[in-house]
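step=encode ok
step=design start
structure_in=
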C-alpha cells in the first residue's frame, strides 16, 4: 500500500529527533527566518497545512503538496510586515509537466539602516576613554535569503511525493554565513470525506558558521491530517491538525479550519497549542514558571478567488496575534495559469 511512504517518512523523522546527538538548546538555531510561515493561507491555518494540496506555497512547507496537473502553472507572492517592522517576502512558481511538477521560489527577510553602536563608550567613561572605531558606518543591515528548487509528483491518484533543496545565506553588517538544506514530504488521500494524512521533514543540512562557530539549521518534522467536516455542493468546511516537532523545542500542535463557499470565498481560522515550556541543557522543565517560547497563538484569515479571462486570481489575507509584540498581517496573491 502506498500509505507506507507516509509511515516511512514518519519513522525517519522519529529516528532523527530521538537521537541524543540532535538534542539542542531551545531556540538556538541558525536560519531562524525559515521558521516564519510563508503564504497568507498557510498562516491563517496556523501552519496546520501539512496536507494542503495543489498549493505552490507548499514548496516552503511540504513539497509533496505542490504537485499540479500537467500543463498547469501557478504563481504566488506573499508580503509580510513581520514583527519589529522586519520585511519578509516570498514568491514561488510551480510548473506541471508530464513528468511531475517543478517549483522554484525564494524567501527574503531583513532590515536596513539599523543604528550601530560601535565601540560605544559607557556614560561613566565619557571624557575618559577614547572611542577607537570612528571610521565605519553608523548603521548596518541584516538580511536572510533562501532560494529554493523542488520537484513533486502525483505518484498515484491518492499519493503525492515531493522533495526540495534550498540555498541559504544570512548576512549581518559585513559578515555572512551560508548552507544548503533539503526537504521531503508526502500526502496520502484516504478517500473518505476528503480525508488526507501527510508528513514532512524540513531543513536537513549542515550547520551555518559565523566566525567558525556552527549553529544548526531549524530541523522540523511534522505529521498532519485533515477531513471535510461539512461537504455540500456549494460550501464545505475542512478541519486540519498538525503535530510538529522542532529540533530545538517541545512538540507543538496546530489546529485550523477552512470554510469555502462556491470555490469563491474562503474563511479561515486556527490556534497553536503547547507554546508554553522549554527544556535545555541547563536543566529540566520548570513547571511552576514556564518560559513562553512565543506570543503567537491564534490566527484568522480570508480569501477570494476570481476569474480573470482564462485564469483565476486568488487574493488571501491573514492576521496573526502576537500578544506583547506587533500583530502581523500577511497578504498573498496567486495566479492559476491553466
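sequence_out=
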Amino acid at each position: 500500500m502506498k500509505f507506507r511512504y507516509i509511515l516511512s517518512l514518519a519513522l525517519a523523522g522519529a529516528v532523527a529527533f530521538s537521537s541524543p546527538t540532535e538534542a539542542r538548546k531551545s531556540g538556538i538555531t541558525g536560519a531562524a527566518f525559515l521558521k516564519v510561515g510563508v503564504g497568507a493561507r498557510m498562516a491563517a491555518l496556523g501552519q496546520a497545512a501539512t496536507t494542503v494540496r495543489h498549493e505552490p506555497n507548499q514548496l516552503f512547507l511540504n513539497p509533496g503538496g505542490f504537485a499540479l496537473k500537467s500543463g498547469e502553472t501557478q504563481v504566488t507572492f506573499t508580503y509580510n510586515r513581520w514583527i519589529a517592522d522586519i520585511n519578509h517576502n516570498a514568491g514561488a512558481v510551480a510548473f506541471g509537466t508530464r513528468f511531475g511538477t517543478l517549483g522554484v521560489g525564494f524567501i527574503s527577510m531583513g532590515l536596513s539602516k539599523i543604528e550601530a553602536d560601535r565601540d560605544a563608550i559607557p556614560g561613566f567613561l565619557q571624557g575618559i576613554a577614547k572611542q577607537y572605531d570612528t571610521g565605519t558606518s553608523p548603521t548596518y543591515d541584516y538580511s536572510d535569503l533562501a532560494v529554493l528548487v523542488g520537484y513533486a509528483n502525483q505518484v498515484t491518484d491518492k499519493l503525492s511525493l515531493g522533495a526540495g533543496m534550498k540555498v541559504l545565506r544570512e548576512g549581518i553588517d559585513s559578515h555572512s554565513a551560508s548552507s544548503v538544506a533539503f526537504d521531503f514530504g508526502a500526502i496520502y488521500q484516504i478517500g473518505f470525506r476528503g480525508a488526507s494524512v501527510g508528513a514532512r521533514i524540513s531543513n536537513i543540512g549542515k550547520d551555518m558558521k559565523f566566525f567558525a562557530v556552527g549553529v544548526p539549521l531549524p530541523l522540523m518534522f511534522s505529521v498532519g491530517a485533515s477531513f471535510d467536516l461539512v461537504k455540500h455542493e456549494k460550501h464545505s468546511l475542512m478541519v486540519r491538525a498538525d503535530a510538529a516537532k522542532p529540533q530545538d523545542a517541545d512538540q507543538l500542535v496546530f489546529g485550523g479550519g477552512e470554510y469555502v463557499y462556491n470555490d469563491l470565498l474562503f474563511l479561515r481560522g486556527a490556534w497553536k497549542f503547547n507554546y508554553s515550556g522549554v527544556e535545555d541543557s541547563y536543566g529540566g522543565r520548570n513547571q511552576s514558571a514556564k518560559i513562553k517560547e512565543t506570543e503567537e497563538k491564534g490566527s484568522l484569515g480570508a480569501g477570494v478567488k476570481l476569474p480573470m479571462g482564462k485564469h483565476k486570481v486568488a487574493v488571501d489575507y491573514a492576521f496573526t496575534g502576537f500578544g506583547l509584540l506587533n500583530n502581523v498581517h500577511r497578504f498573498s496573491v496567486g495566479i492559476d495559469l491553466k
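step=design ok
step=annotate ok -> The chain has one domain: 4-113+146-337.
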